[in-house]
Specification:
244 residues, 12 strands, 7 helices, 33% helix, alpha/beta, 5-stranded mixed sheet
Length: 244
């Protein structure tokens, strides 16, 4: 497998580079030393590659999608902070090439998503709160993973239909139909996500803690392996897990 790594000089780019020798070229808007050829212009890349792995910034997504479509290569998008416009671009590109996008590439988190869906169906009437914690340098909030967990709750519920992000003031009593979502930023926390189901006289909490960024890099490489032989369309990590 031959990988074009977008965002090679970022934190996750360095982690991925340490875990695999399959990277044949790197792309970023700022050059930095690497053990493979690097470029600031996608049109100048000469190396042949099987898949693009994108750990860059959402601002670069349009160019990366265009590159993947032009060379008809699969794309794995691991950049976070995407908005509705980005997802529309991904949907359009996925009609031409295979595109996998996920807010979290941890295998454990993706198992947690399935568990959250199951509990949301079984525990109707329980109050649900989602809490995510990350390091003090993380820019976006809440995390993409928290949004994924929220989506699992809302899609599986009949009586929960909207999110409340944070809670403050003298009139902040929760409603039965809301899902609370809260972001904590501090220190060097790699990533922690909890989903709390609070009923009458009992609480069920499921929690995932990441102790290093390697779990995200390993999951992204597993996704790349899957996507090399995938057909055009939009994919999620659950497709990778179910394939195995």
């Amino acid at each position: 497998m031959k990988i074009l790594l977008s965002g090679y000089n970022g934190v996750m780019g360095h982690v991925v580079s340490e875990l695999t020798s399959d990277i044949v070229a790197g792309y970023s808007n700022v050059l930095a030393d690497a053990s493979f050829p690097v470029y600031t212009d996608l049109s100048e890349i000469k190396e042949d590659f099987d898949v693009i792995l994108d750990f860059s910034h959402p601002s670069a997504l349009k160019d990366i999608l265009n590159k993947a479509v032009s060379v008809k290569k699969p794309l794995v998008i691991a950049a976070t902070g995407l908005d509705e416009g980005h997802h529309q671009m991904i949907d359009l590109a996925s009609s031409h090439i295979p595109v996998l996008q996920s807010g979290n590439f941890s295998l454990g988190i993706n198992a947690m998503l399935d568990i959250t869906t199951a509990l949301s169906k079984m525990l109707e009437g329980y109050d649900v709160e989602i809490i995510e914690k990350h390091h003090n340098l993380k820019v976006d909030a809440p995390s993409g993973t928290a949004e994924m967990l929220l989506g699992s709750v809302l899609e599986a519920s009949d009586d929960r239909d909207h999110a409340v992000y944070g809670r403050h003031g003298n009139d902040a009593k929760r409603t039965a139909s809301e899902v609370g979502v809260h972001a904590v930023r501090g220190g060097t926390i790699v990533g922690e996500h909890s989903v709390i189901f609070a009923g009458v006289d009992e609480v069920i909490e499921i929690k995932h803690t990441a102790f290093s960024k390697k779990i995200f890099a390993q999951g992204s490489l597993k996704a790349c392996e899957f996507m090399v032989s995938a057909k055009a369309g939009r994919y999620e990590m659950k497709d990778v897990l179910n394939h195995d």
